[in-house]
Amino acid sequence: MGKAIDRASKEVLAEMVRHTQKQGLKGAAGGWKDFLKKFGSGLSDPTRRSRELLVDFLQTFTKEQQKVFNKMIRRNNDHNAMKQFIKDFVHLESPKQRLVRLTMEHPKYTKQFCFPFYDEGWVTTHLGEFFEAMKSETMLAIDCEMVLCEDGTEAVVKVCVVDQDLQVKLDQLVNPMKAVADYRTNITGIDLKDLEGVTCSLSDVQKSLKELLSHGTILVGHSLYHDLRAVKVDHLRVIDTLCIFKFADLPNFSPSLNALCKVVLGFPVRNDGEPHNCLNDAQAAMKLVLAKLKHGYEDPIVTTDVEMPRNDLAKLLLHNIPNELPAQELQLLFSGEYDVTIESATKQRGESYTTCVVFKSPVEADEAFDKINGNLTKDSGGRLQKSVFWKLGSGKTTLLYVRKMTNDPDASKKMLRDENAEPLQQQAVDDNGSKRLKVCSYPCDHVKEIEKLREDLRHREEEIFNLQKALPQVIKENICDRELPWDCSS
How far apart are the first and last CA of the chain? Predict the structure, then answer.
């Protein structure tokens, strides 16, 4: 174990030290800052300390604790070897390996596929004999269904895997082993009765997946990182169907599996309103990859051709919502003229969650969005969203986001107000939660210049707020925010 640490690069060593800080781990000499006392504690940033000092600190941990470090070193070596292979042999790559490369080169890959593989309960697959593994042409596609548990986490309840002939390799219900708050039956198609008597655990599924994914097998999926997080498996050779098709003017556009199948394959996976079928979804992801291999689809897909289900168009997505803010209070964002439904949290990450507000029609959703008082921007997928400041019951002010569910072809026009526009009525939320209308009027002269200054001010306010929010944690940890491409905390 000590030899592995001795051979590791300084970047890897610094990341391991940061990991000990985040987890509060201590070796024989205490934590990182305790260890530094005899060397002068002015520089606690591990990237600014010598490599030799980092090695000395990490070797103060027990052999059991160093198992985590070994996993980090081994994963880094595999990842670097794979990147080097792609760079050196790109002219000899197979069509399937090209799709692996396209996935890795996608702008969101580094962030989305960075998993806490060193955490308890996670497993990693290994390439073994590297050059032999990289020659493997075997492909498998996976899809999972998850439920929301009472502790706020998600748990996998079904896993399906198919091969490139669309034959079933794994079709398994999984016992979440903890209390379920929402089975999301309208999405998963699974309820309490389906899981009665199910004894298969996540650990059992992981063992099956490790066997299936040995020797360089390529794993396929749509938004594959969600499935890998669900089963807590870190696998390097992957093809994500969101990453291998180009979208006109919107490189980060993320259509649903159903919408992508309509455009590429000519037929949907399911009709609007139908629950997911885990097996069908795994097969659909594989069909998309096979179609890409056969027909190329090198021309960008026009995003306006990717239809959204009508019931999704009648929604607005709310994200970055503090856990202390009850979902039902979000109705205060919208005028009382709308009868809205707040869905249960769809994602929960740390101290915030995401949900959807459902209106009676897409027209109502658009109207309500226009009336919200907030800074209008676009997200990474080109969808309009507004940032809204909200005062919590605790007295703190937070920033949450209200986003449309689809791209708006006239978005650029809506982000610039016309010089001769009538005064715009916008809804705002008072500190006490009551609603009011705010009338904005504009002078006839210098409209564009004034509006630009207003936009700059709003952006500056948002930046200051985010800095104020992050500052206490930065001071506490006294570490740099730079993350390595092969590892990041999630």
Answer: 26
